[in-house]
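Weekly structure sync, notes
Attendees: PL (lead), two postdocs, one rotation student
Agenda item 3: pending single-chain targets
PL asked that the sequence for the first pending target be pasted directly into the notes so everyone works from the same version. It is reproduced below exactly as submitted, 227 residues in total.
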Amino acid sequence: MASQNQQQQDETAIDKMNSHLTSAGEKVANNKKIIFWGVGAILVVACFALSYIFIYRNPHVKDSFEAYNKVETEALANDSLAAVKYKEVADKYKGDTAGKLAALSAGEALYNEGKYEEAAEYLKRFSSKDEVLEANVLVLIGDCYVNLKKYDEALDYYQKSVRKANSNPQIVPRVLLKEANIYDEQKKYDMALGCYEQIKSGYPEFRLGNGLDIDAYIERENARLAK
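Predicted structure, written out during the meeting:
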């Protein structure tokens, strides 16, 4: 599919070049001097465009993915090595798809090593049109800031995640729990209560997995607020 899309892009570039040259050729009889410089400019642009496609862009993309896949193989289950190698790929191919994937993998490896500040910086380089994946990465950035006790920053990323998740029942209630834990730490019990109530009203099928239901947490926050 990727090669087909690339082929279509290449054909489009060639078609545009041919269109320019044909148009230029039709005007030769009217103004040879202008056409001489015009065709020359078009050929220069076309050469640069085609050189980029065939000489630079395709090998560049190929190299970036080969570098990423090499780390995937070499650094399996070794977070220290993975962090170093993925960072190298992310830094070398910054902005490319493989570079973004490497930044995500580097961020995960750095998080596992407890290097939360650096992990957050690499995770921020990642972006995706997949809302679920993007939302989960935002959650992990928030987790980095929780471990750094930067609670306001953590809340900011958790809230971004909730917006990105677009009411996903597997993500939103889990993030609301994380937010509630921060508010409890900050003794903002009314805010924590709001998170639990959102879970109860919006995600009634969500289960905490600790033998308690959401009502127990709501009761706890109400008791704290009554003191």
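Discussion points:
- Residues 135 and 161 are 5 Å apart (CA to CA).
- DSSP finds ten helices and no strands in the chain.
Action: rotation student to compare against the earlier draft before next sync.
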